[in-house]
Amino acid sequence: MSALSGTAPAAPDPAATTGAGSPDDPPADAVLDLRDVHRTHGSGPAAVHALRGVSLVVRPGELVAVMGPSGSGKSTLLTLAGGLDRPTAGQVYVEGQPLHALHRRDLARLRRRRIGYIFQNLNLIGGLTAVENVALPLELDGAGVRRARRLAQDALTEVGLTELGDRFPDQLSGGQQQRVAIARALVGERRLVLADEPTGALDSQTGEAVLRLLRRRVDEGAAGVLVTHEARHAGWADRVVFLRDGVAVDSTAPLAGVEALLAGSNR
């Protein structure tokens, strides 16, 4: 385990972090590779173009923040990256696997084993305890109940909830529920962590702790994508992708880049 990072990391070499893969094969070290991805809802004059030709590569040990105004395509990008939706055009690869070519069963297995999701609405199951919520993806993937519960308890300990595993969601505070969701996203061998406004309903102190946990897992070798409206939260990332009307503008400097992109969005 690496130590928790108390400050935002330095920006990496741009050459190591930008660009989609080659026309034929995804980059060998890419965990996530989006290539010229489009997502259109509806057709004709009423069509909504949520994403327009977005390309993005995220490598192990890299956290990318995605920012932009409401309706710019941020959540759409996450759902496509996680295989929860399919692009209208373009391709999405996770660890070199083309999501569009996977059978539904294989895609579900990949999502359970390799991708962790932190949703805005948490999606905790009210009838399950904290440890049962965290263990559920492992049990669905065939892990024995005893092993799944042990790994789930370890994950809860990692997020500071060692003594609360037997509590139900409605017995936990908002911040504690968010930590359970974080533990569920990180349990097992997750290589890609997708976080959609994970601090939105939290106080600043709890939100900071959540970002530390996310940053720590990325520093341990996962790839992360963080959707946020907050410039100070984007400062935890290695770089920022700003979406405007479904089009991406990339920056490799998290703090200066955010300020410049936000200034440009107000013109």
UniProtKB/TrEMBL annotation:
Pfam families in alphabetical order: ABC_tran
Segments of skewed composition (Low complexity): 1-23
CDD domains reported for this sequence: ABC_MJ0796_LolCDE_FtsE (cd03255)
Any one of the GO CC terms: plasma membrane
A GO molecular-function descriptor: ATP hydrolysis activity
Keyword presence, Flavoprotein: no
Alphabetically ordered keywords of this record: ATP-binding, Nucleotide-binding, Transport
Chain positions covered by the region annotation Disordered: 1-30
InterPro entries: AAA+_ATPase (IPR003593), ABC_transporter-like_ATP-bd (IPR003439), ABC_transporter-like_CS (IPR017871), ABC_transpr_LolD-like (IPR015854), MacB-like_ATP-bd (IPR017911), P-loop_NTPase (IPR027417)
Domain of life: Bacteria
Occurrences of domain ABC transporter (ranges): 32-267
Protein name as annotated: Macrolide ABC transporter ATP-binding protein
Annotated organism of origin: Micromonospora sonchi
